[in-house]
């Protein structure tokens, strides 16, 4: 049912001239889904209050609730006479609904409340529907979905993930929001989060790391206390970009986290020297954006100045970890060997303040459309690195859109990493053997078969001439036979 609904929404959106890309599809579907989710949540809270003999005041005032404008019903069926459509619907959304919802950000000063998130989302999102008839069709399809069961949320979350993945494959900007889920799951298995620990992603995008960590930790036999801890005191994220922030909120809600602790802010504007113990977390999981180039005033927040965004994030994450905390961070593989001052200084700091115990070398094509090779750094805060264990991932095929990374590709890595075992794909390097001038951590597999030496240009020319003579003799023989 849900898959048909999403397919129908896609067909409807194609008819609206204001919605032209996969990013638009995801964004516009998200705000409508969010308001339907909010309506179902309000109804559930009201029912709970009535069962307890208590009163309940809805977050949204009556004229702005879903049942008043999106799906007014009579005898359980949509009342087409009461339902706005065409220009009336677009005018209502743009001039009344969105301005009303934006005010919640001012009314609430706690960014972790649902009220604040309503205001944040609708301060950043712009309604791109131009046709009220298209919007009316979309509203009617989404009104048929319900968020009142975990089974429904699970199916919806899978569909929503597929939409985010499709958006990520559509281009570079979309790709910023999507990290392959098999890679995320492998990273989580290595850091082994436990209930009671806090998990943080300061560049959370569509919240893939936080959602997968939730899936890893949740169980049917959790106590009420553990479930509350998982819901309210475990997952924390920050995201700079408006669309990614909205996608992250909606993604976590669909996975079953009712009030996601994601803040809409530029993480790098925080001075890392101001981070206190109360701000730190047990686990950091992230794939920070690379390149970009931050402004000079932003770079002043870090002891190692760099125009490379990922280097600033790595410094932030190292300081966000508590002593004994674990990190797993995706970064460009050039970080391991670049000779510029920032790269060398950052490698030195990482090795001297953390135990960089594992480096996972990912093959090209792991991140579709990115055009760069990446590694994953696994480290623990608080003790120096003595030895680094490398694993060179080789799925035995070229990765691409039709042949992406899967969980089976990473099984051997996860298994061998438990004991840091050597294999044809894995090996260890003692820090004592590194060049202290560069701290070069390049991936150089000593177990790989030696490549054949390349022929010199002179040898290549000589071989070509010999082959030409041989070809000429063969042709003469053929002509003789004719």
Automatic annotation (TrEMBL):
GO MF entry, a single one: N-methyltransferase activity
Pfam families the record matches: HsdM_N, N6_Mtase
Sequence ranges assigned to domain DNA methylase adenine-specific in this UniProt record: 152-451
Residue span, N6 adenine-specific DNA methyltransferase N-terminal domain: 12-84
Keyword line: Methyltransferase, Restriction system, S-adenosyl-L-methionine, Transferase
GO process terms (BP): DNA restriction-modification system; methylation
Catalyzed reaction equations: a 2'-deoxyadenosine in DNA + S-adenosyl-L-methionine = an N(6)-methyl-2'-deoxyadenosine in DNA + S-adenosyl-L-homocysteine + H(+)
EC number: 2.1.1.72
Methyltransferase as UniProt keyword: yes
Keyword Secreted (UniProt): no
PANTHER family membership: SLR6095 PROTEIN (PTHR42933), TYPE I RESTRICTION ENZYME ECOKI METHYLASE SUBUNIT (PTHR42933:SF4)
Family as reported in the entry's similarity comment: Belongs to the N(4)/N(6)-methyltransferase family.
Protein name: site-specific DNA-methyltransferase (adenine-specific)
